[in-house]
Design brief:
InterPro entries: Glyco_trans_4-like_N (IPR028098). The chain contains 14 helices and 13 strands. It is an alpha/beta fold. It has two domains: about 200 residues, Rossmann fold, CATH 3.40.50.2000; about 170 residues, Glycogen Phosphorylase B (Rossmann fold), CATH 3.40.50.2000. Helix 1 packs across helix 14 and helix 10 crosses helix 13.
């Protein structure tokens, strides 16, 4: 406590919030998001263990994923138009009506990658609006996010009184970019993505082969993901005779970087959309997961790997290095250092006991501190603080 102030007091109000405000009924949350399916499932399921949750998402993306939501999540599959559709105006009227009917205590946009939602945020001033910013800046080569105008993602963050980022290192950057007081930028961990590990248990899937030492690179393939670093590291590897590198995901063609490879025969490239069952098998078959990013905030791939108890080798960018070192779940090397990345691969390939220890800690983190329900509990406490502060401001107005 500083200057005798209440611990939940914000610097801009400089006044106490009555303790009774924090003992009010559990806040009801309306979650809005148009993408980020794996993150949304994990976050909504974890949050629903603690607060009433209404989740409004596009039918086209989420209808086939409905089975993965906890029954406690009130899932609303909406005919959510694409960004360029003029029917967005009618859709926004539906959202305004949804808020009026549901009367949430918190409206939480799970991403700032929106365009049309910017038009309705001013209509929701009676309800606290929070936006999660996954990437403070658009990553190099991220053609999906860059299709949105930069002003749209910035405006959504600026219109929201409170922001959430996935680590302390990102708070200052977000506060500066979106012109927020630092106390309005909060941290919540990215929860473990458990549905692929659950799918493995549901269908009794097992590792299919142990003949090779398999390094998995999974996810969207863009410049910032550092696939060229992984290839340059592979070219330096001399002490893993059975090395197999699997590259799986949509995006840029990995074979365009073939000149960086040491031995193309070591590679299994699956340049396409990967169905859920295949994703599950990829992680089951991996000995470790590679995160050779040149830039990052956090990584959903890390949170899938942890659910499978897989160690990682990652570059020290964004929150990756901090997270991996804190929980001792892998090796961290400097960005763009192919020699260090190759050495880390060789060290883990040579020491199965080390891999097992790292993997066990990774799984313990996934099922413990980083479990969706634990992240949901932190979100509930944050919601209570924001609602109490909002009510305090309303009372003084």
């Amino acid at each position: 406590m500083m200057d005798g102030l209440h611990p939940f007091q914000t610097e801009d109000t400089r006044a106490r919030i009555p303790r009774a405000a924090f003992e009010a009924p559990t806040p009801k949350a309306l979650l809005l998001v148009s993408e980020l399916e794996d993150y949304t499932i994990a976050f909504a399921n974890g949050l629903a263990q603690h607060v009433p949750v209404v989740l409004a998402v596009p039918r086209r993306q989420y209808a086939e994923l409905a089975e993965w939501f906890d029954p406690a999540v009130d899932l609303r599959l909406l005919d959510w138009p694409r960004h360029r559709s003029p029917s967005n105006l009618a859709f926004l009227a539906q959202l305004v009506d949804l808020v009026r009917r549901e009367r949430p205590d918190i409206i939480h946009a799970l991403s700032n990658n929106t365009l049309w939602l910017n038009l309705v945020v001013p209509l929701w001033r009676g309800t606290p609006v929070i936006t999660t910013v996954h990437d403070v800046n658009v990553h190099p080569g991220d053609t999906e996010t860059s299709t949105l105008p930069g002003w749209a993602t910035s405006l959504m963050a600026r219109q929201s009184r409170n922001l959430i980022v996935h680590g302390e290192a990102l708070r200052q950057r977000a506060a500066e970019r979106f012109k927020k007081p630092l106390q309005r930028v909060h941290t919540l961990p990215h929860p473990t993505i458990i549905r692929y590990a659950d799918l493995a248990r549901r269908h009794g899937l097992r590792r299919q082969s142990e003949e090779a030492f398999t390094v998995l690179f999974f996810g969207r393939i863009y410049a910032y993901k550092g696939i060229d670093l992984l290839m340059r590291a592979e070219a330096l590897v001399q002490n893993i005779p059975n090395l197999r590198i699997v590259i799986a995901g949509r995006g840029d063609d990995p074979w365009a970087l073939r000149s960086n490879m040491g031995d193309p025969a070591r590679y299994d490239v699956r340049h396409r959309f990967i169905p859920d069952r295949d994703v599950t098998q990829l992680f089951l078959d991996a000995d470790l997961v590679a995160l050779p990013y040149s830039e990052a905030s956090q990584s959903g791939v890390l949170h899938i790997a942890a659910a499978f108890g897989k160690p990682v080798v990652a570059t020290d960018v964004g929150e990756l290095g901090t997270t991996i070192r804190k929980f001792r779940i892998g090796a961290v090397v400097p960005p763009n250092d192919a020699g260090a990345f190759a050495a880390a691969l060789e060290a883990l390939a040579a020491d199965i006991d080390l891999r097992n220890r790292l993997g066990a800690r990774s799984l313990a983190w996934a099922e413990g501190e980083n479990a969706p329900a634990k992240v949901g509990a932190k979100a509930e406490r944050l919601y209570r603080r924001i609602r109490a502060e909002h009510q305090h401001r309303e009372a003084e107005a």
